[in-house]
Amino acid sequence: xxxxxxxxxxxxxxxxxxxxxxxxxxxxxxxxxxxxxxxxxxxxxxxxxxxxxxxxxxxxxxxxxxxxxxxxxxxxxxxx
Length: 80
Ligand SMILES: [Zn+2]
Prior knowledge:
Structural class: alpha+beta
Mean pLDDT: 87
Bound molecules: zinc ion
Distance between the termini: 44 Å
Shape: elongated
Largest sheet: 3 strands, antiparallel
């Protein structure tokens, strides 16, 4: 998926929204024809709603996970 700017004057694809679309979300192939068109307000709302579903892992947890996997590798392969 990728998000590109739309220079066309399409209406936003969200039902009930009459704004002009400025962004296209597509699978990268022929985005103008197969993409979904969103105005900035609807795109921001989608972003905020997605953030409720997908919480990024904190860098600290990721760091700890990397350290744990390194320690497991040392146990597995033996200290050098
Ligand atoms: Zn909209």
